[in-house]
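Aim 2, interim progress. The first record below pairs a target sequence with its structure tokens.
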Amino acid sequence: MLGALAVAAAGGASAAEPLKVHAAGSLRAAMTALAAGYEQAQGPDAGRKVTLAFGPSGLLRQRLADGEASDVFASANMTHPQALADAGRAEAVQPFARNTLCGLATPGFSLQGKPLPQRLLDADVRVGTSTPKADPSGDYAFQMFERIEATGAAAPGATAALKAKALQLTGGPNSPKPQPGRSQYGELVNGGQADIFITYCTNVAEARREYPALQSVPVPDAINVGARYGIVVMRPASAAAQAFVAYVLSPAGQQVLAGFGFSPP
């Protein structure tokens, strides 16, 4: 109800320029659907459109900190939007979704009867991740490597070994750009650039819709890392930006996110 009221309240400003939303790459499908839902919820005469810019959250945060114009920033962690809020560039951060890690593996990948942490350490297994610091997905994968050693799932030295062997294939400033409408993770694994890629479970599901032969490998709860997504209204705050965030947090918005595999915040 709150989201609907907020969207209705923003309708008066609909003739203005489009609402600019920067969002984590893992939100591409979900945020596209949310933008469409927001536009529809305004009513046929409102006309307020949403333009979307996707990328690794850390790189987007830097662009916004450097002055790139935006109305809303949706990050795959809480840290990057909080940095903008701390710098006075954004309003208070609100959590809006959760995600977890899975492995996306080639059709021929096998655990060979071993626990996942042990298999990742094998010399013949190429482990793909995103780029830490630039992309929270890489940060979460490296935190998983730390948990592998901390929980005793692998011997001392496992964290350093996994971080050293990880192929940081996405999310960095010099990484190949995703092709519109294509799963970058699916292309990389299907193309043989990694045997298993540690990424969000939502990314794995999306990749497997495009490449059904690829495997989804569960990450045990003891070493899994939960991703908490945060959203902020950029300053100067507009009524439309506040209405969009309210829509994302509303039951209707949360239903859209659930449809793409995200959990409630």
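The second target in this work package is listed in the same format:
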Amino acid sequence: MKRKTFFNYSLVVVAFFAACHISRKNVPPIAPQPETFDTEGHRGARGLAPENTWPAFRTALDLGVTTLEMDAVITADKKVVLSHEPFFNHEISTHPDGKPVTEAEEKQLNIFKMPYAEVARFDVGMRPHPRFPQQAKMKATKPLLADIIDSVRQYMMVSRRPFPYYNIETKTQPSTDNIYHPEPGEFVELLMKVVKEKQIEEQVIIQSFDFRTLQYLHKHYPAIKTAMLIEDNDPRDLTAQLKALGFTPYIYSPAYKRVTKELVEECHALQMRIVPWTVNTREEISQLKALGVSGIISDYPDLF
């Protein structure tokens, strides 16, 4: 009788811990509600820590952002890596032997032609940034998207804080297809493979200046939120931009100086959120909030 009771108790204990493991793995992370004002740390927190690296994302999380904004590129061995350029920008990069990357050579250091093991040998955190004097200097490398998602999940679970959204930009353009990156369809499939493996479909937004990326997503992954990025010198109005895209995205994300009260009202009338980039003063953040924007992307998430 005692052995049977112990056996039953053991089954209960095993079932409990199994349930805990399953719930942590499979239940979608907690995230802000859609109506929440969206505070996004640009490239993590570029003004405060090395861009698109774990220290920058951790800094942004500690400052309470609702969304981590980041950029994705692809390596020769088809890994999704976080980097603004598909090469090693001379402003932030150092060779494995300690020599600074020069402007003359940077575009030859093509990440699309390197396996990730080689990419990870370059430092992108030790050089003082000429445009961001507050940026802390530390050893850092370009991380895999998959590793950042794991780090964020662990960090937020330990600190018992809500999980963020991920706003991931695909760095593609027609002129550099198959030179610095795959064509949009392959790029999206590689990115979505990570998104699905890490079970963050509900927490991800895919943004791009390249409408081809967004069109592929809309056709093949219609449930994934998309954001249409717009340059400050785009000659088209909102109607023409949406016509070129072919559908209404979840977010309209223009350069912040394009934003007017009329533009905000147009977006809201279309049930489209408007999240301008990149806003780096408290005064401008306050002005844009007063216009009714849905969120803001900033290099300095401490300003929020």
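The beta strands are 38-41, 67-74, 80-82, 165-170, 204-208, 225-230, 251-254, 273-274, 295-298. This observation will shape the mutagenesis plan for the next reporting period.
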